[in-house]
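Batch manifest, entry 17 of 40.
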Amino acid sequence: MQHPLPHTAETPFSVTGSHVALTKRPAAGSAMADHGGSYNAQGELPMLHPVVNTPECAIHRIDDHTPSTVNRLVVSTPETRAIANDPKVMGVDYTRRLKTACTRILSILNTEKRTCLTEDETIVFDILRGGLNFGLREALADAFGWNRHGCSFISAQRARVDGDPENWHIMESEYSKVYMPKTASIVIGDVVATGTSLEHAMKALVAEAEKQGTALRSIVFFTFGGPRAEEILEAADAMCRKRFPSYEGTTLIYLEGRFVVPTEETPLTIKITGTDLLRKGALMAPEFIESQYEEPSYPIQRCAVYDAGSRAFWTPEYIADLTEYWGETLALAEKGMGFAELLEERFPELDANRFSEVDLKRICRKQISQLDA
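Output type: structure tokens
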């Protein structure tokens, strides 16, 4: 069975972009107030409680002082830090690193008895095409030496409609090939911004389980994503507990952080609403926060992962997206914006003094030249 993650005796982190605890909610409209919902109804910051801490994998449990039936984790690994920090990690290199991270996390969660997956009951539920990024079928095989666990597929392609930048709908969901044993533990991975595809997939998963007479036992979900992931999984968890009496629980694994998804009101010069995963105001692993100081380009990235589909499977489109961002940023720099000003906009919680003298124009030109190489 899945076990809830306990508090530890170690000092918890109260973090929204830093290790510094804020004791009250910032003023409306301030940088910290517009973080996308990290505070609870009482204005309290979430806490990260260390569960596992090794150089290869740090696992933290989220406690935001509100009841939740979902085991919510923020996990940091060298591979996922590289993905979220360095957009030059792309193509097969990107998917291999992500699979390696998922392999390690699955192994540690099993060793720590946080999950209990068996080969004959486990199904990887791939949401096309984002789910393919995570390599979970191979990750399970590498973690546990399995060969016969199943894999199912469902398509869920979202798109904006009606000219409303906040209005997303599923435009394509025709493909579905779902296999399930009589009792099934589900392992899923996807990038979550608005959650449109995930919400569709979770409803389809439960409906298919009922259609096939399957009792769902548990769900493990990996994501580079924002708060919408846990809202959807909370609803799915409640549905599963109601419809499947033997359901044991849901584990949500945020890779590096619970990032923020911008809206039209988010005060950023450059953004893609409903798509970008922002560092500003996010709940992030302390290991990831510290890694921002390794290169000045890291904290000013537009997005933690950019478009995962093109990053994995069609890099010319992905490179064009990155080149456009750094070109727009270079234009800002040529008009007088400096690194400290951009850092204040994109990741104000960092200490700008920890960076040496930084030339924003030089950073932009370097990023563009590396993408052209």
